[in-house]
Amino acid sequence: MLAVGIILCYLLGLSLMYAVGRKYSLAELVGYSFLIGMGLETFFLFFLDIAGVKYSQGVLIGLNVFSIVAICGANYKNLLTLKEDFKAPDFSLKNINLVAVFLFCLIAYLFYAITVKNLFWPPTEHDTIGSFDKLGRIMAAEGKLKISLYQYNLEGAGGLYPPLYHGSFAYVYIFGAEMPKIITTLFFVSLLTTFYSAVKNFTGTTAAMFGTFILMLTPELFSHAALSLGNLPTTAYVSAAALATITWLEKRDAKYFWLGAIAMAFVIWIRSDTIVFTAAALLLVALDFFKTKDWKNTIIYGAIAVTPFILWNLYLKLKIGAAQAGKFDLGIGYNTERMGVVTAYVKTFLFGGQHGAVDGGQLYGLVFILFFILFVVNLILIYKVGVKEILSDSVNTLLFFFVSFALYFAVFYFIDVKVQNAPIASLMESSFKRGMFCFAPIAVFYTFTSYASALALAKLENFRLGK
Amino acid sequence: MALKHCGCWLNSDLSTKQMAKQQPKQSTVIPQKKKAAAVVGGDAFTYLLRNSIIVAVLGVLFLLIYKVNEGPGKMQDLYSEYQQLSQSRGSQERINEIAEEFKTLQADTGFFKEAIRKYTRGYYWVAHDVAAKSLEQINEINAKVENGQMKTLTREDKLGYKVGVYPLIKYLIESTPKDAVILLPPGDSVLSNTSKWNFVYDPEWMEYFIYPRLCLTSSRENEHPDLAKRITHVLIVQGRGYDKLKYDVPLDQRPSEAVLPIDHPPVQNQNKP
Predict the structure, then answer these.
(1) Which domain holds residue B169?
(2) What is the pLDDT of residues B118-139, one digit of tens each?
(3) Closest residue of B to A101, CA-based?
(4) Residue B269: pLDDT above 60?
């Protein structure tokens, strides 16, 4: 039955994808359909809880089939013409990209190895035992979102998080899973495929494969592909949402508008503190509004992206009886000591080196170093080529990266250590470190799509093609 | 109607009105960023040769990174072996060998090597330890299962392997009814400073294993006032918790780990994990 549940989840995502657009690449279909499907499944779990309907395989299968049929029914004319979009691939010798095949083989081996490890061991991390897996298991057992442990304050810290991540665990448990870790693997595949397709939209297969390889190998991120913590799934949503939004702003292809808005809604449906990414995306859309005066798009995007945040906070307040407030201490103003600690850790994460128990190079490898090298090279090239040329395709990426990072920095600078019951150094070494995952895809995306890198990659591609 | 414009019903308004102003951008202004055309120069042989050259360069680069990081990686393995041998008072000859090898590896430094290691040791760790080594370990276990040297591991067996305190938790589950409310030992330095007991004092962590039983931590009963009134059992760890029982247990009959009813002595002899 687990296979049925997962297939339904993919089909649900797929049906919505074809409702908002067509002509997707295979990588987009694989990646976005799971992210959207699982997001919708957890919306179902949320609304079933509100309606007082107990979760069961039958209820979920019925709901899925009904939704898929309804979406496809409303979109049947589009679906009938889909056949014309599929072309048989050309396998002639001169079309084989050996470099991409080589990189793909490395990615496939590493993916296989980490997946074997992931699926072999049960979840044992403190946070998942104390929160996510516990919530998922008990949600499936009791058939509701507000499980009995809430009345004894035994739900764990994740009980206040929006339900996408532990809801996805509950979903696979309902369909008979013994362990929920298949979810980690599916989120990892989605992260890689959506990232690959986004880079490919701006460059070519070789660069996209190389970028995906670099992203996948980000040491701390890769190790999380064998764990059951929420950071990797959050990264999958942030990456898909941000890159689809950027693609829409650059290419003006409507399907990316919808993919970006829907995925951005799930960004805030998986963790509330990811609001920094929603804010950065809203800023991009708002700036675009000044250019296009297209108020309708701006409102639709904003409404889709923010609604889950409102829904979850209402649920917390009205049903759980808890509110996420008082996490910040804005009264500290400019505090030299706090600024020193936070900045020192940020430097270590971004530029390598060691601080406290953190080794930046070990955690993130070359990801942020390459980003900043390319950033500086592009700045230098401005003198030669001109601002417009250099920034034409990357201004949105840079804005998204720097605005969300500044907000993320502010969140930790102003965090109330008394409420968190932990010193700032400890928060930087655990929470901040893992939140950095979300910036990795944006940094690698810029590394492979900026003007300077495109110049270098074009030369490589010309050599490869003998042009 | 919408289908005529963009082929999807959800886009009806956007495609016909707003999106009309936003036609897909033509190819970017940067000529170098144009996607490589499918036109390929030369014959298939030279095309494959050029591709192979890039693959070879990448392969050499990856191998170089791997080799540069192999030394420090091996040092960790040697250190683990040394610790194992010194604890078990193993072969002195091997210990000397390890010391010599360690010295050689320690001397293997240089500006470029250190610079490369600084940013690439994480990649070595990923490829060598997280991926390859773990796969090898799991394949070994699977091979033993196939050869009949080991029984097929269940989820519980694996939990027992990873969570040291799991046998005690399992015993707790077997010794208590499903509606039990269990008082856990306090999370002070005696338990929290050692990994042996994992998080046995943390009620949110313990709840994962013992649900639908409920639990709370000793000395933090005020955080769960409802449960504090309903305690049915006490989990004894390292001989701590006997003072919470409403009856006396003779000193010579106090096992260091046990699960005991709070109100009365156990009916059967079930106080030994």
Answers:
(1) 158-261
(2) 888 899 999 998 999 999 999 9
(3) B55
(4) no
